[in-house]
């Protein structure tokens, strides 16, 4: 994923509505880890910080095939596919 986060942080992501926010103004998504997750390099006294993944859809034209590589688009597609599970 285009986040530069450790595997454990990616694994701790939550799709709960309060932990996943899509921003319609710039097309990005803000992700947060599950409550109680402690990263390898994180002190217990510090809360996990949310991170923002930018969208490629704002920088690519509709005809540009690179728009298919957009991580935000992929996340939306994934969430729609697993919604019934």
Keywords:
85 residues, alpha+beta, 3-stranded antiparallel sheet, 2 helices, 3 strands, 11% strand, globular
In helices, the fraction of residues equals 10-25%
Query: What would the principal axes of the Cα set say about the shape?
Result: globular
Give Rg in angstroms: 14 Å
Structural class: alpha+beta
User: How many strands?
Assistant: 3
Terminal CA distance: 22 Å
- Elements, N to C (H/E): HEEEH
Number of domains: 1
- Mean pLDDT across all residues, rounded? 82
Provide a count of the helices: 2
What can be said about the biggest beta sheet? 3 strands, antiparallel
Low-confidence stretches: none
Q: How big a fraction of the residues is strand?
A: 5-15%
Strand order of the largest sheet: 1-2-3
Q: What's a concise summary of this model?
A:
The protein is 20% helix and 11% strand. The protein is built from two helices and three strands; from the N terminus they run αβββα. It has helices spanning 7-11, 71-82; strands at residues 20-22, 29-31, 51-53.
Overview of this structure, please?
- The chain has 85 residues and is an alpha+beta fold.
- The chain has one domain (7-82).
- The protein is 20% helix and 11% strand.
- The protein has 2 helices and 3 strands.
- It is globular.
List the SSEs and their pairings.
Elements: H1 7-11, E1 20-22, E2 29-31, E3 51-53, H2 71-82
Antiparallel strand pairs: 1-2, 2-3
